[in-house]
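Subject: Sanity check before I submit

Could someone independently write out the structure tokens for this chain? I want to compare against mine line by line before I put it in a report. The sequence has 63 residues.
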Amino acid sequence: MVKGFLKDDILIMNSDGLTNLVSQEEMLKQAKKDIEQAPKELIKMANKNGGYDNITVIIIKNI
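---
Independent answer below. Compare away.
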């Protein structure tokens, strides 16, 4: 069952350059902490963990 994109839902779209180096739990934690800075922080984390691939992150919050 698909519920749709509800109020306060967070959508994280990213390349495998992030997925391979940062856990889903950490991605969500960063997005909830500061949604505007989260993409930069997640890219920093991925680079710190090896950063061997292109890293793309887009975060959308339904308000």
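---
OP: Matches mine. For the report I'm noting this point. The helical segments are 16-19, 24-33, 38-48.
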